[in-house]
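Journal club prep — side note

Before the paper discussion, L.F. wants everyone to see what a predicted structure for a comparable chain looks like in token form. Sequence:
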Amino acid sequence: MAIRKMNPVARVIMLTSQSDIETTATAARNGAHAFLHKPVDIAKVIEIVEKIKQERVASSRTREDQERLAAEYIRLKKVYVELRSLLDEIAFRQAGEEEYSCLSDS
């Protein structure tokens, strides 16, 4: 479908007077989100559009959560690096004190 090529996130609702399986299958293969036969039941169209809106909201929340988690990961990684550096410094100092203690005992 040309619409999906121009906008991959577009949701296409196909309306047709043809009800053969071939047309339905072709529409599905080409990315139609929904396939409705004429005469159209307006309640069904509204139901489909509401479902698409809910999916978009959920997708947006998921994207926001992923961005928030990525930022938190970066923050925690910095904290980890700093903590690791402090622990290495403490271990180095303790090793130096033990070495000094061994030398003064001789």
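L.F.'s comment for the group: The first strand starts at residue 12 and ends at 16. Keep this in mind when we get to the figures.
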